[in-house]
Design goal:
Blueprint (H helix, E strand, L loop, with lengths): L13 H7 L11 E6 L3 E7 L19 H19 L7 E13 L8 E12 L2 E10 L2 E14 L1
Antiparallel strand pairs: 1-2, 2-4, 3-6, 4-5, 5-6
Length: about 150
């Protein structure tokens, strides 16, 4: 049975995430996947710390995580779901953030928060995925959007 035929993989640690995503420090924004169901949904986390490089300039006297990075983190979670649902990433493949719709920000994210990303697959066909993504802190919605990913051979 191929990996894509499994329905539940459970947790994925940072080492496995780094095998599936090409991102590296300071731009890898997912610390752990706490649940994944292929072709269905993924739940991932990001522990936000004052040591993040973007807090030096956004904003030094009132550190707030940039909304675009919250969206990027949701796209990375969607990318992991795409990769795993399609059987893993080959060396010559990348999954790109291809689109965003209906993005809304509801709560500021500050150091000490843990972002929980809940991403649900809406459609995945021919390497193009569409997802509904929600980022939460302490059960409160911080941001949500519809995200698209696209697989491309390089």
């Amino acid at each position: 049975m191929s990996e894509a035929q499994h329905t539940d993989m459970g947790q994925i640690n940072i080492l496995e995430i780094m095998k599936e995503l090409p991102h590296r420090y300071p731009f890898i924004l997912i610390d752990r996947v706490i649940d994944i169901k292929f072709n269905e949904k993924i739940t991932a986390i990001k522990n936000v710390t004052i040591n993040e490089p973007f807090f030096q300039g956004h904003f030094p006297d009132f550190p707030v995580m940039p909304g675009v990075l919250i969206i990027e983190a949701m796209a990375q979670a969607a990318g992991i779901l795409s990769v795993k649902s399609l059987g893993g990433r080959k060396e010559n493949e990348l999954y790109f953030f291809a689109g965003i719709d209906k993005a809304r920000f509801k709560r500021q994210v500050i150091p000490g928060d843990q972002l929980v990303f809940e991403v649900t697959q809406l459609k995945l066909a021919r390497g193009i995925g569409k997802y509904h993504a929600v980022a939460k802190v302490d059960g409160q919605i911080a941001a949500e959007a519809e995200i698209m990913t696209a697989k491309k051979e390089i």
